[in-house]
Amino acid sequence: MNDRYDVVIAGAGPAGAQCARDLAARGYDVVVLETESEDEFPRQSNKSTAGTFPSMMASFGIPDDVVMQYTDSVVLESPTDYYVREQPGAVLEFADFKRFLVADGTEDGAEYRFDARVTAPITESGEIVGVRYNGDEEVYGEIVVDATGPAAPLAKKLDVVDLKRENHAIGIEYEFEGIDVDRPGFADLHDAMMLRLDHAIAPGGYSWIFHTGEDTAKVGLCYIQNDVHQRYARESFTIDDYLDHWLETDPRFRNAERLEGKQHRGSAHIQPPGKMHTDRFMAIGDTVPTVDPLWGEGINKCMQSGRMAAAAADSCLKHGDLEPTAENLEVYETLWHREVAPNVRTRLWMTKLLYFAENDRYDELMRDLNDFDDRTLARANRGSLAAIAKLLKPGDVPMLGRLAAHEFGIGR
Length: 412
Fold this sequence. Notes:
By secondary structure, the protein is α/β, with parallel strands linked by helices. The chain is built from 13 helices and 16 strands. The protein has three domains: 4-50 and 93-163 and 271-340, FAD/NAD(P)-binding domain (3-Layer(bba) Sandwich); 166-269, 2-Layer Sandwich (D-Amino Acid Oxidase, Chain A, domain 2), CATH 3.30.9; 344-408, no CATH class. Helix 1 packs parallel to helix 3, helix 7 (298-317) runs antiparallel to helix 8 and helix 11 (374-381) crosses helix 12 (385-391). The mean pLDDT is 90. InterPro entries: Dggglyphlred_Halo (IPR054884), FAD-bd (IPR002938), FAD/NAD-bd_sf (IPR036188), Geranylgeranyl_reductase (IPR050407). This is NAD(P)/FAD-dependent oxidoreductase. Residues 5-305 form the FAD-binding domain. GO terms for molecular function: FAD binding.
């Protein structure tokens, strides 16, 4: 078995697999180390709601046969109101999607090693030169990429990322049949992806229903485990308790039944990314926090992150005398901030403002959105300060004060 490659990638999720696809297509020797077994892949890591948009499908050549349902609209719900925006989308069968990325990369020459749990970087003279996995097995590369998500065993030990516990988000999702997707008093969710802002269901977060055809849908929720969550949380409630509460109280689920084996759990970090690379090393995908305040769309962010890392690696490796030093790999961070998550700090503030708001403010937001044109919300989601200001009102001053206290430690 070969033990030396141009690039070693830890993690076969969307970011790692896309990075491998791009590098293999350029003719580089690349190996991907994946914790799960090949026969069961993906199992534990099958954690995404898998909602995406046509731009991602087209940009990365994703085939139609991994799509569960094409959608026509996105819906925002509050406790008593809703807003509908016409927006084509797609709900993917996430397992099929991930298997496609692996198969496509393999066809171009990428090597995958399954049952390969990455444990530590191998360093020489302070630089990473390879990866240790499964205890004592080793593989070496000119460049190493950590795409393992929040676990980040390489990035953490190299002191590249700082994933703070107070910004750790957890999520749970089930797939159901028997859902009333056009219940009177609610938005019609046929061919729709819906996000709900309601602290009774997801305190300090949001819940969702993604239609997957006929009377089936993906249903889940997530929240950040911080003091905003604690402000609205029920004592001793777990994330499973919140989902059960929603299922018991929402009439759309009265006849719903969980589909066997269709449960997904996951986590992510919602914070500024900080440092993402060093000598011969890059951290990509969910290993580095990213954010889209309203729609999530983590798939596209991960795929773009993998592509930018592949471009940075190529910029060094195609020149035989150009060492992949931190200085020469800095193009990755430049591309990340320009292409993957522009205006990231402003967009994070938008996210935090959403979660700080009270339930009655969510109802008011829905009424405002129905009066505004769709471009206002889109611009706010991209981090436009003018658009965000348009969504705010004089009554939001106390909320802004709480956010400032939270961010800067005022009164602690």
